[in-house]
Specification:
This protein is an alpha/beta fold and 286 residues long. The chain has 11 helices and 8 strands. It has one domain: Alpha-Beta Barrel (TIM Barrel). Strand 2, helix 3 and strand 3 form a beta-alpha-beta unit. It is globular.
């Protein structure tokens, strides 16, 4: 963890663009609550192939209007260079200086990957088009990408993104701090020393979490899964248990030198606020 201890700790929150006006109002309430914690930025997800493009732009534009630090996701699969160039121009005009660069999953029915087969291709393109204009965040997978044939291939894929110009990384969520520690040690052995910020998913709904985890390859440890199953439909107990488990993991990560935390909020503030309070965090604008 030596590579991570040298970096200043930063904290950030992820949002997804809502599909309805009511959802947008809910998102705004969540942001206004969490903004009181002074995160470095809010990231905003982006559907592969631009499937949520307009709602992403709407959310990003509102955050910028509010003067809130913003890091839009940019998924490149199925996109052309001209499309990505136009989006980069839009974000430059908005004064945005941070982007989360991702490959994204191929949308159903799409037969071609476009001009960017891999995320490192996108990172390289952004650097070539904009120089150092953007701080580029990329994804990392402590439990390895579900489509990677083996761990070494996945590590090499991550290194290619770093070599292409990525500044920082945000991990897929996990519930085993040891998985993160081993991943960082493997990265250090490959000469990677950029900040690798743990992605943190509060536990709000077991059925939903299990579905997400099966799809993205994030393991729910058996003891956690069995406890959650035992609560049945008792949402209050699920969330209380989840807050305790995630708070303990976050504290261990920070104590061992993780360079901050990135919370997947699911556009809800309560669990994040409670975990934040348990950790006694304080993040003030620089």
């Amino acid at each position: 963890m030596k590579s991570q201890k040298k970096h200043q700790k930063t904290f950030s929150f992820e949002l997804f663009p809502p599909k309805t006006d009511a959802g947008m109002e809910k998102l705004k309430g969540c942001v206004k609550t969490l903004q009181q914690l002074h995160p470095l930025y809010f990231s905003v997800t982006y559907g592969a192939g631009g499937s949520t493009q307009e709602r992403t732009f709407e959310t990003v534009d509102w955050l910028c209007q509010e003067g809130i630090g913003t890091a839009p996701h940019l998924s490149c699969v199925g996109s052309s260079k001209d499309q990505i160039r136009g989006i980069l121009s839009h974000y430059t005009d908005k004064g945005i200086d941070r982007i989360v660069a991702l490959r994204g999953d191929m949308p159903s029915g799409m037969g071609a990957s476009g001009d960017f087969p891999h995320a490192n291709d996108l990172v390289e393109f952004i650097r070539g088009e904009t120089g150092e204009r953007f701080c580029i965040e990329v994804a990392a997978y402590p439990e390895f990408h579900p489509q990677a044939p083996d761990a070494l291939t996945d590590l090499n894929n991550f290194k290619r993104k770093v070599d292409a110009g990525a500044n920082e990384a945000i991990t897929q969520y996990f519930y085993s701090a040891d998985a993160y520690f081993h991943f960082v040690e493997s990265c250090e052995a490959m000469g990677i020393d950029i900040p690798i910020v743990p992605g943190i998913m509060p536990i709000l709904n077991f059925t939903q979490l299990a579905r997400f985890s099966d799809a993205c390859g994030a393991e729910i440890p058996r003891w956690i899964r069995r406890r959650l199953q035992g609560f049945g439909d008792d949402t209050k107990s699920i969330r209380a248990f989840g807050v305790d488990v995630v708070s303990e993991m976050c504290q261990r990560l920070l104590d061992q030198g993780a360079p901050g935390l990135h919370f997947y909020t699911m556009n809800q503030s309560y669990a994040v606020e409670t975990i934040w309070g348990n950790l006694k965090l304080s993040q003030k604008p620089s």
